[in-house]
Amino acid sequence: MSQGIAPARLAAFEILLKMESGAGHCDELLRTMRVQSLSPQDRNLCTNLVMGTLRWQIALDAQVTRLLSRPDVKLADGIRVALRLGAFQLLHLDRIPAHAAISESVEIAKFGGEGFAAGMVNAVLRKLAVAGPPKIPARFRNAAELAAAYAHPAWMVERWVQFYGMERTRQICRFDQEPPPTTVRLAVDPDTAEARVIEDELKAAGVELAPGAFLTRARTVVRGDVTVTEAYRQGRVRIQDEGSQLVAELTRRGERILDCCAAPGGKTAILAERNPESSVLACDVSGRRLDQMKKLFSGREVPGIPGKVSYQVADAADLSAEARFEGAFDLVLCDVPCSGTGTLARNPEIRHRLNVEALARQRKRQVEILRGAMRTVAAGGRVIYATCSLEPEENDAVVAACLAEVRGFRRVGFDIAPLVGGVGNECGAIRAEATEALRETAFEAGCLRTLPGVHPCDGFFAALLVKD
User: What does the DSSP 8-state code read for residue 422?
Assistant: First the structure.
């Protein structure tokens, strides 16, 4: 029945169709055996088709609708997905011939049980191929134009323009429309012989690296697949966005450390690496995710982690209810669940599922978690509150609400001087040549705020609270 349809396109269609009906998330669906059984080339194409179609979906729908003879008609899910998939290839993938994108989209429509509409799919996509991609203007008159050009929800872009200005919002939106850089972290200090061995192994496996933007242990993957290397399987190098790494580096040192929303564990690993004499308790509300994290660490050669980190399934909002956790830690990382609007390049489906009302629900939960985390801190201890959100309700507003409720804390700015490499400091986490740029663009009003496009990473917020 699927004869004549390339495996990558068919797999992409099936994933997008499931997502259209709310039956899954792209990160999970792209890791199924169905996708993993494809050849490496087809697997890459399938991923590009799914992610690219999700990134441009709002604009693709608008372009297709204008070409329908009856723009107000409600299309079946299979037809809508087939049109999006074909339109994305025609408008954004130069290497795919137009005839292949059109003919296989027609076959996909038939495969989806909508053969009667195959002629319409063919006609619309042929018109779209002639029209070509719309020009993105150099300047935008308003947020609505910017949102339409870069396929973002108008309500979201209007907020960002209000908070960050038109130019920074344009940089965010443009960054969101491209595959984000793959960044890895070395599990050992970069000046050691072991680090050189790791980099040589990756090079021999065809992985080309470049220095990270901010951090001495970060590397950007220029070419190659790091996940097939022995160094990756052993945990001596792991994939982690550089903004995420930076948040964990800012926690600095502590003897009794709590990571209260720990899974999937990237920041926990950095806490353990940077505090070799300390104990780290990793908590998460999901036992399944915590088990995955534990298995990941125990099966890899991650320096110091297996014997240093303990685990507990727990709701961070309720931790302080246990007497043994009241004032028990001198360093707490509170990286809370959030809307994820700082990660739209990596998680494009968020823009189709999020609404303004959800931000209020997220904020309520975040206040509960931070409030609970603050009560586990000993006198003189520190709490890092972090999100991967660009929304003030989830960031500064949460911190302000908790400071008003939990007495004895004050918000202080981050001091990155001790983290800068080459000055006889405690760990040399931040590259000396990146220091001024970071200070000028990422550390504003005492907090960390990375913005996609302004910085070559996901958007993160972090604030530091100290207990007197």
Answer: T
